[in-house]
Fold these 2 entries.
Entry 1:
Amino acid sequence: MDSLITAAARALAAGDPLGALNRIALRDDAPALALRGIAMAQLGDLARAKTLVRSAARAFGPKEAMARARCIVAEAEIALVSRDLGWPAKALDAARVTLEEHGDKVNAAHARYLEVRRLLLIGRLDEAERKLAELDPAPLPPALRAAHELVVAGIAMRRLRTKTARAALARAERAARHAAIPALAAEIESASLVLNTPAARLIARGKARPLLLEEVEALLASKALVVDACRHVVRDARTVISLARRPVLFALARALGEAWPKDVSRGTLVARAFRAKHADESHRARLRVEVGRLRRMLRTLAGVSATSQGFALVPHRAREVVVLARAVEEEHAAVLAFLADGESWSSSALALALGASQRTVQRALDQLAAAGKAQSYGRGRARRWMTPPVPGFTTTLLLPAPLPSG
């Protein structure tokens, strides 16, 4: 490798893409194309970066398997940053194996981290944790150690383990200082903000207040009966009952939880559960049926008692009933939660992350665009969507709730 290529590679490793381009901007050989692609990715021109890296992979000869594998890893990283989550995981895994066989442990580990970060983005936490456990960050350079800790923190936040997340972010910050890469330090700072901004709202006895992520963790470990509107479950510290596939029952449970210890009139319950303006006899009959189903679902946690006006929730063990609601509640909040990370998303990537059909996601995006809450650029397969983050709120608890299929 010649001196200019070596100097450009060192500049990129130090987070200096302009310094790298100054050395190789006019060169079209395979190593220069690869480094130019990485430099353009660092500068934010992801489309150009993808083209350059692919050109580099084709330019490397058949005997340069390791160089081609590195290009595949670079392309996967560009895809991850551009939220193109449909890239072939098998190709990345094959590249990782090639790098391991050639002794490039650092880039092999980087490939694994990209895979784990993709799994984290699409909500496959168990698989992400399992693959992360296969990696030992100790022998890695500071930048990859910081990346490791960022993934640890991300999983911990989604699992509501705030102490683990804070410890991981502290380790990531120390590693980033050693790496001396400003973009990495900024990413860690942004992740740290999640722990210090409201993540949800607590609704109890008719009043609401914001909760930090660690307060949510403490609430779920308390003796309270929690109607969790972030994940559509009813729970206490020992038992979790999912109503995610029973929207009518959850609407009833939430209405009863918000009113506790008071009861809720039948007319209000009909309006909340069935979205009917006026309760006729058919609505009342259906309400009796649905309340009976709710009693059976919640029998280990609480009862639902009839009153002269309507119904009331009666917990068996808990001394208090509260509702845990999203920090921001509006239509298509799950789509907004992903868009609020500041990156540009394709509709197909959003559909994959949300576990919904692409048509459902596209309808949501069109409605958000009409309301001025999302914007797109590009056309066809290159179309991307984004929106500014909601100021003062983190989106961690918005992410798990799936869109209705359509």
Entry 2:
Amino acid sequence: MYKIFINRIIYILITITLFSCKEDEIIVPIIEEGDFSAIYNLPSEPFNYSAINFPITFTNFVFEELDNTPDNNHITNNGATLGRVLFYDKNLSLNNTISCASCHLQEFGFTDPREKSIGFEGGHTRRNSMNLTNSRFYLKEKFFWDHRASTLEEQVLMPLQDDIEMGMTLDLVVSRVSSFDYYKPLFAKAFGNDIVTTDKISKALAQFIRSIYSFNSKYDVGIEATRNIFVDFPNFTAQENLGKDIFNGKLTPEANGSCVFCHMNDNPSEIHFSTTPSLNANQVIFTGTRTDNIGLDEDSRGDSDNGLGEITNIEADNGQFKVPSIRNIELTSPYMHDGRFTTLEEVVEHYSTEVKDHPQLSDHLINPDETPRHLNLSEEEKAALVAFLKTLTDEVMISDVKYSDPFVE
């Protein structure tokens, strides 16, 4: 009786505490966690996901113009920890065989080394798995290859419900997650109670994915030293600096034909071809917010993938796809939305000589005479561009334990 009385007193005190707080505050109740060390390996204090010391090269422009974090889902250490467990949990697929991480592997820059990913029943996805690195800085309303998801919170729920990928319904996901006791302390710490909802699952997964940052590459050392992509980096080889000049259009008479036009900023007026670029310029994200048709094919006939055009039903959008992050591109083979290229050399050759005259080819890849624009690089220049792209590899991110699989088995 005494134990029951004490428990009731504790319950009343917790209830009073919860309801006496401001509406927008999350109060973490004191609960018995149990011993789940045989299931997952998590630190007693969560990893730091929320208070990151970004390099100065992550400028105001990056955070003010590109950050897609909604006001109601800022990253917290406990929220991202829950998201990490959900991300790696194969129980979120119908037959308990596939997790989000099955198609986004850390050692491959959170992509899949296969041309098409394998779903829960062995089927293959339609498109190549996209790099998740720095997803926080994909402009809002621009997720998936065809931009069909408006937010990251919306995007993370779609693979769960896909007939090929994970085969679940949202109700089944909630029911299954609720059935595992090891989630109770994680939800309680992240959201103030252990009640599982679709909204909480979505928010936690989005928090973890947004926390996957890359800024520890050889390129980052160089840009922090110079703060200017248009001058030689002191830590680069001559070949890497030549590749950087090719990438940023320094050697290209028409800036629109350079790599930087799509992979560093989406507003040409914000690309600064000078020795003193604006401190608010984006020189670190290496992704685009618009879609592009880069002339991979000659037309859109037959059963080809029309990308954005399939979503909008606008002919001009046919063959247009998201410009993905090229961070860690050395690790993210195969390339393009369909995984058609297996090496960086093939990718560079495409832009050098093989851009095709698709009816909806993007304007910046069209010459004044309306022929496809080719960079026509020499063998030396091709090798230099590949060497530069490899400077974007971040060995820290791909081995950081806070992004790794927390499950013991």
